[in-house]
Amino acid sequence: MSFPLLTVTAALPAVGAIATAAVPAAKKSAAKWLALTVSTATLALAVAVLVRFDPGGARYQLTESRPWIKDFGVRYEVGVDGIAAVLIALTALLVPFIIGAAWHDADEVEPSRPNRRWRPTQGFFALMLAVEAMVILSFAATDVFLFYILFEAMLIPMYFLIGGFGDRAHAAGEEEGAKQRSYAAVKFLLYNLVGGLIMLAAVVGLFVVTSDQLGEGTFSLQQITEARADGGFQLDTNIERLLFLGFFFAFAVKAPLWPLHTWLPNAMGESTAPVAVLITAVVDKVGTFAMLRFCLGLFPEASEWATPVVIALALVSILYGALLAVGQRDMKRLIAYASISHFGFIILGIFAMTSQGQSGATLYMVFHGVSTAALMLVAGFLISRRGSRLIADYGGVQKVAPVLAGTFLIGGLATLSLPGLAPFISEFLVLVGTFSRYPVAGIVATSGIVLAALYVLLMYQRTMTGPVEKPEVRAIPDLRVRELAVVAPLIALLIFFGVYPKSLTDIVNPAVEHTMSDVQKKDPKPDHPVADKRWFDYKPVDDHAGGDHK
Amino acid sequence: MSAVATAGAVPSLWTLGAEELQAPKIEYGQLSPTIIVLGAAVIGIVLEAFLPRKLRYGAQLVLSALGLTSAFAAVLALALTGHGSSKAAVAGMGAIAVDGPALFLQGTILLVGLVSVFVFAERRLEPRAHAARSLVDSFAAQPASVPGGEGEREATKAGWTTTEVYPLLLFAVGGMLIFPAANDLLTLFIALEVFSLPLYLLCALARRRRLLSQEAAVKYFLLGAFSSAFLLFGAALLYGYAGTFGYSGIARVVANADRATSTVLAETTGSDALLLIGGAMVIMGLLFKVGAVPFHMWTPDVYQGAPTPVTGFMAAATKVAAFGALLRLLYVVLPGLRWDWRPVMWGVAILTMLAGAVVAITQTDIKRLLAYSSIAHAGFLLAGVIATSRDGVSSVLFYLGAYSFVTLGAFAVVTLVRDAGGEATHLSKWAGLGRRSPLLAGVFAIFLLAFAGIPLTSGFSGKFAVFKAAAEGGAGALVVVGVIASAIAAFFYIRVIVLMFFSEPRADGPTVAVPSVWTTSAITIGVLVTVVLGVAPQYFLDLASQAGVFVR
Predict the structure, then answer these.
(1) Does residue B487 form part of some domain?
(2) Is B542 on the interface with A (CB under 8 A)?
(3) Contact flag B471-A204 (C-beta cutoff 8 Å)
(4) pTM of the model
(5) Which of A217, A251, A538, B437 is 20 to 30 A from residue B330's alpha carbon, by CA?
(6) Residues A184, A189, A190, A196: is their CA dihedral positive or negative?
(7) Quick one: B382 exposed, middle or buried, by C-beta within 10 A (0-12, 13-18, 19+)?
(8) Distances from the Cα of B366 to the Cαs of A226, B298, B303, B422, B443, in angstroms?
């Protein structure tokens, strides 16, 4: 048996979480450094996963498989395809920055004297590492049951992060803030728990149909896909659709897709900026990732059946999220609604059922993670300086804090997909992929870009430009070294991938081809011949000889 | 038969019985768990009568622990020698079945009883009695005295303690051991009474809030008597139907295998009306003990009023015993009637899941909340019962094991949160408990998450097993109702967690008493079982699935 790299990558932050939680009360800065070290080491392991992953090799690599709960047909099965490898890297990449940005976030809830029992700093960073461990393992899980367990279990630490360490900068005062925070945490948990429980019914159903047809109930993704490929596993159309709906509902809550999105603005608004990044850039990606891996992989026909509705909902998400973002007065809620719009793009790309769309969606997950992290973390730095989340409380910040304003602008421009920055590539791919199969949907989605420019630039204009009228704004200091160290690498990455996306597309594309073959889809034949070399070297899955496309 | 005919006497049940009377043959080895526990209970009574007051506590404790442990060892020995599988048989002249489900449930009940003894034995929580400076437990100083009267004051002052709770617990456990193993209706009824009567008494023994406790006991007694009457009446009707009390005999008549056991009874037996009404009444009696809607009314009042250690014991062990009896009745006696009872049980299960979960939302008392949650869990268990498959049996067995330890642990935690008036059970007093005592609140949160069925806890494994069995048994709709009820239930479990962790502590809030090693070990066992059954349930699932076959 080879070295269990994936297990170790997921286990390291889990062990780190326990160690961090055990740090004595008086040594809270030791806890912070420990968490940062562990998450950095995890990043190194995630990079090792990327390096060891061979894009041209088998579909799932670095696989491990051990029996776990025989009666339920559950195995501990992990393995990565290109999509999972890239998302694990994204998670491991963002968490150290999130921890760095959250360095002082738990200080406010520290008791005045060190208390042996109540150690919020230790708890805060331990919870973050716990979330990281579960997210990484859920990306790696190729057993549906294992995935489900992590999908549900990660809600608990997330819930404590939102409810226990929320944003103190609340306009309506401390007491109202606590109420809002607890409301947001409960809303987050209930929405996701209900989604998860509906999925539980579908998971049970999956066990029943597999034990019916394969003789033994199984949750192994590989086993099911193989059995389907050689005809040993065929689902009744209605049952497949019901199971698909059960899974999709849970993922659509998590992603979040309109109309199941309403928990996100509350959760992101009330939690601290780093935790908000953890929600939208890391945890929510599990939802979109699972659509790609489980909905399409397990229920290809039902996915196709649901495509029109899902695309319509994704379009509504894009436009609705963007419109509401334009109207927000609260910076964090604005970014939350922008994220809803972006998740619409991701889901659109997945369900367009073209290889451009799906690799675009995968890249979108990564680049949205990085760009939102940059924008949200800088917004968080700004909010912590002024103690207010309202856009109207700012104005002219670029005069007193130019570096802060500049990084904020780059984060914003990435969010609106400016060419040259990474999100442009992914958004472009999603739109092209959608357009080639669903031209109308592609056109409607494009208007989301216009709205994105509106909400980002309006926010920038209102907060950063103009005269400095408020004395509190005049007192705003520029970015400190720690904060710059958090933001600068993220911006560097946005620029790097904006110029050289090939490094990622090479890893992602083979995985997307597998997914496309799962759903038995081929790209629509282009009207003009494809150029051999393009700047981001995109190779569509095509069958020029056959041409039996829709 | 011929003797009766030639004598020309009027054939009657009397002559029939007299003729067939034989000397009973008792398989002492196979019945040893029950005999040990009941024997220990009798010795406990003798100790209570003859030992000086000072020595009783220690003696009773040792006796109870020893009795329960050796009974558990006997169960283990029986199971290991194959009495649960290959050598499963009916013992005691057809009165008691010794088979997989019986041994599994007896083992569970014995462990639950043992952990309950630990919680009963806690004496560090109540303040010392002034004059005697002796340690007291959570049971009334002198149960016979009038609440608030002179006698009570003197007994409290003297620092008396009620050590008769231990023999009472042993008697209850003894009855519970017979209940799921009972293989005829009369044994079933007697076992029901043997475990119910001590429970009625135990409910009335709270040291604090004695009126509430006595009210609970009276309610429990009245409604319990009512349900016993149902069960007995149903048994009589079934006898009229089949001419026998034995499970296998009734089952044979239901299956039309032998129309009548004797020519004498041939004319009266086989009436479907008797069967349906009798079967329904027996099931009603059992559903009452299980706490299923619409027979659940007693649960919240009794859970709230009874001393918390007793509530924990009752909530865990009674459910195990009663579900065992229900399973045996439905799977052994009435499988031929499946198409009649399944629709009814569907209705009961759906009502129980939804009503338990919905009503729990409005509760403000932690013990009442847990009571309604136990009702909802009874609904989930019924979903597994309805599966009518071997998987159904083993999933219910596993769920019962998992659930009972979560319940024991949760109620043990409730005993620790106290203010001047005793246990602070009102939910508002639990606000901010996570700040004052993160460890205790964290442990309670684990139990609540297990109740809610969050993965990596035993509650999830159990729920998944039950839902899987139900879905395979063609009850997919029940699974959907089950997950909806779980979602509703999750709301109130999480509300308690919010209250503990995210609310500001109240100035007059309760303190968390530091327990002795007894309660600590009970809670630790609860947490361990909850986590182990959540993370690595395979061994116990195997155990349950090996134990999934009833002897007929």
Answers:
(1) yes
(2) yes
(3) yes
(4) 0.86
(5) A217
(6) positive
(7) buried
(8) 50, 16, 10, 14, 15
Phi-psi category of B122—alpha, beta or left, where left has phi over 0 and alpha has psi -120 to 50?
beta
Could you say which of A69, A178, A198 has the minimum Cβ distance to residue B483?
A198
Q: What three-state secondary structure class fits B404?
A: helix
Tell me the nearest-neighbour CA distance from B465 into chain A, angstroms.
Answer: 8
B422 occurs within a structural domain: yes
> A197–B483: do the CB atoms touch at under 8 Å?
yes
Counting one residue from A and one from B, how many pairs have CB atoms under 8 Å apart? 106
Cβ–Cβ below 8 Å for A197 and B545: no
Q: pLDDT (tens digit, 0 to 9) for every residue of chain B, 552 residues total?
A: 444 444 444 555 555 555 566 677 888 888 899 999 999 999 999 998 898 888 888 899 999 999 999 999 999 999 888 887 788 888 888 889 888 899 999 999 999 999 999 998 888 777 765 555 667 777 877 777 787 778 778 877 777 778 889 999 999 999 999 999 999 999 999 999 999 999 999 998 888 888 888 899 999 999 999 999 999 999 999 888 888 888 888 888 887 755 555 555 556 666 778 888 998 999 999 999 998 888 888 999 999 999 999 999 999 999 999 999 999 998 888 887 778 888 888 999 999 999 999 999 888 899 999 999 999 999 999 998 988 888 889 999 999 999 999 999 999 999 888 887 778 888 888 888 887 888 888 899 999 999 988 888 999 999 999 998 998 888 888 898 998 899 888 888 888 888 888 777 777 777 787 888 888 999 999 999 999 998 888 888 888 888 888 887
Q: Does B498 contact A178 at a Cβ distance shorter than 8 Å?
A: no
Only one residue has tokens 């040291």, namely B207
The alpha carbon dihedral of A105, A106, A111, A113 has a sign of negative
Residue closest to A71 by CA, chosen among B377, B548, B108: B548
User: How many angstroms separate the CA atoms of B13 and B5, rounded?
Assistant: 14
Q: Do A153 and B454 touch (CB under 8 A)?
A: yes
Are B131 and B283 in contact, with CB atoms under 8 Å apart? no
Residue B19 CA to residue B42 CA, distance in Å, equals 34
- The SS3 of residue B129 is coil
Which residues of chain A are within 8 Å of residue B452 when distances are taken between CB atoms? 193
Contact residues, chain A, for B464 at CB < 8 Å: 72, 200, 203-204
Structure tokens at B466: 């039950």
Q: What is d(CA A344, CA B268) in angstroms, rounded to the nearest whole number?
A: 72
Which whole-number Å values give the CA distances from A253 to A187, A288, A366, B2, in the listed order?
12, 10, 19, 76
Confirm or reject contact between B390 and chain A (CB < 8 A). no
3-state secondary structure of B419: strand
CA distances from B298 to B189, B215, B216, B222, B224 (A): 20, 11, 8, 10, 9
CB B261 within 8 Å of CB B241? no
All residues of chain B having their beta carbon less than 8 Å from the beta carbon of residue A153 are: 454-456
What DSSP line would sit under B469-492, residue for residue? HHHHTT-HHHHHHHHHHHHHHHHH
Q: Give the residue numbers spanning the domain of B496.
A: 337-546
Verify whether the Cβ–Cβ distance A117 to B439 is below 8 Å: yes
CA distance B330 to chain A (A): 24
Domain for residue B542, yes or no?
yes
Provide the number of structural domains found in chain B: 1
Please report residues of B whose CB lies closer than 8 A to that of A201.
467, 479-480, 482-483
φ, ψ of residue A26 to 5 degrees: the values are -75, -15
Nearest to B500 by CA among A111, A157, A163: A163
B182 pairs with which residues across the strands?
A: B96
- Interchain proximity B490–A149, CB inside 8 Å: no
Binary contact (A201, B483; C-beta < 8 A):
yes
